[in-house]
Amino acid sequence: MSDAYPRVGHLKTPEAFKARLGELGLHLPMDQTIISRADGSPMSQPMTLNAHGQTFTVGNRWCIHPMEGWDCTREGKPTEHTTRRWKHFGLSGAKLIWGGEAFAVQHDGRANPNQLFYTPDNVEPMRDLLRTLTDAHVEAFGSHDGLMVGLQLTHSGRFSRPNDKKKLEPRIAYHHPLLDAKFHIDPGDTAVVLTDDEIKRLIDNYIVSAKMAYDLGFHFVDVKHCHGYLGHEFLSAYDRPGEFGGDLMGRTNFLRRIIQGIRAECPNLFVGVRLSLFDMPPHHPDPRPRKGSPGKLGPGVPDDFSGTLPSYPGFGCKRDNPLELDLDEPIQLLEMMRDELGVAMVNLSAGSPYYNPHIQRPAYFPPSDGYQPPEDPLVGCVRQIQAVREVKQRVPGLPIVGTAYTYFQEWLPHVAQAVVRDGWVDSVGLGRMVLSYPDMPADCELFGELRRAKQICRTFSDCTTAPRNGIISGCYPLDDFYKKSTEQKDLNDAKAALRERLKVLSQE
Questions:
Q1: Does the domain spanning 2-453 belong to CATH 3.30.390.10?
Q2: pLDDT digits 0-9 by tens, 472-483
């Protein structure tokens, strides 16, 4: 339970942070101080990408992960909230903007009815959004030299909500023995499973969206394969018949055809892949009452997967024990990306925020639909970082962006510059941290210090709780823009209602 773990904010020195890692049996390289660009920070070094004869030199080793806010129009156009977020990406000081946010390639693939998606009418608004980001960067830093901006292409698959924020309208690669039950999908419903012909039309729409991105001036597209969305789900479609399931070649056919189609239509467009390197079974709150803690979620425990053994349908985990990693197939896939598909870079994450958030997004405070962390969140961070280190050693020559650094809080830059220097990863990505402290990279680069310490993300998870309750995402605790918004009251009401429900359950 989280109240059993020391908060990172209470670890006041690098020595205290290292000591806590030691208590947990964890090791990370870590610098004593933040190093500025003028003093030769590893984070200030350029990163050169090569693919199909194309070369681009990214200006530094900071990356901004895709961060959507459930705040576009129903027609898929940006609003002032969307535009403000993209402007902050440009002001961040990071030179690699990974996809801005998830962009659905067709309407039924939206994760919420306020997500960006492709239609011809949305092309010019996307041009304006890219211009906003680039102009903000030029205004802050003098030029756009070394700035690389991508667009993340997606279909939300099992987690599609194209018409109603509270209504799933899933389109899936296969019926999953645990996820079907968890998300109320009838295992006998064949209509929700995409046919091969539907998949081929979907592949065409990825290519159309990629061509739009290239025409607008995006430097690359991300073919999203992470977090339980459709691309990620194909990677574990062991029992799906036909050309998009079965062995590894079948399960990667969706990805390979998209990338090959993009290369044919847009040979000068770089392609990246954000990949969940490993997955684990879904978790749920321990239903046993917590003494002295009415109104609180229980710690996460795995759903009962015993009935799936010895062939649990997961990617990057052991099929006969899915709580343990098995990176052999992910390594094969990454080698395929490097050697055959010409992927310029990958961004490695893990798991899914929908069913095992402590694996994917370690936090001290859970979102409203989550559970208390079953382990010190530092364990989850280091699990991801160590897995990426292994990949870096086994697949040399493929530039890698790492994930799971926000929970380190004030010690994030100290760890980031050390892992880059030591060759554990090529670039460090920021997600939640950008919502509360968007210009952290700039402060590190220019001043060698965190000048807005009060804005450091403490993983309160309101940025997740809000959209889980149909409210736009943002940093409500630390960003005055959201703190003073009308949505703040809606969020407070939703959290209060949850606490009351949990109190009732704890008394039953």
A1: no
A2: 999 999 999 999
